Model the fold of this input.
Amino acid sequence: MPSPKIEIVVVTPFQQNCQILWDAESRRGVVVDPGGDVPAILDRVRANDVTIDAILLTHGHLDHAGGAAELRDALPPLADGTRVPVIGPDVRDAFLLAGIDKQSAGMGISGMHDVEPDRYLTEGEVLDFAGCRLKVLHVPGHTPGHIVFIEEAQRFGLVGDTLFRGSVGRTDFPYGNGPELIANVKSKLLTLGDDLVIVSGHGPGSSIGSERRTNPFMLQ
Done:
């Protein structure tokens, strides 16, 4: 059985890891966290000959969601004529998604826009895309509505800005909560098994086992 394919497209001045995830046989897939630089994302979608069925968001920060509206408008419609849906994050990040225009303008960054998802997600849902069963876990702390997508059978997770190689997501926002983030990572991610590979929102990938043994935040 062909394995799913993942390509990372590094976008925006924040060097964010937008992910294209697709099934190698059907060539159908999703884009996860299109923060911006939509032409570059579309180039890679077309180069890989992938039909996009959904845009998934882990959280509402502009560098992860700022290109979602533009990408949705640029992608071909689904077979039933409807537009490609934007799905996620948890509704508790709605205020961030509604403030992208203002925040990006204040930073002097163009090409990032507010987006209203077609639906929000809650913990425990399972999404069937790209030949995968992506389980939704709510892992707040970096943002109130941050979620991650876990493929338990195929042993990988798309974890956004919750857990990085040697670090965790920033929590120095008015809505951030450092102890909550670390507690959630320990209880919800470190319990998934040491062999599970993680794709983070910035920087290189890692594994649960490596972060359990070496990440200073996990050793507290």
Remarks:
- DSSP finds seven helices and 13 strands in the chain.
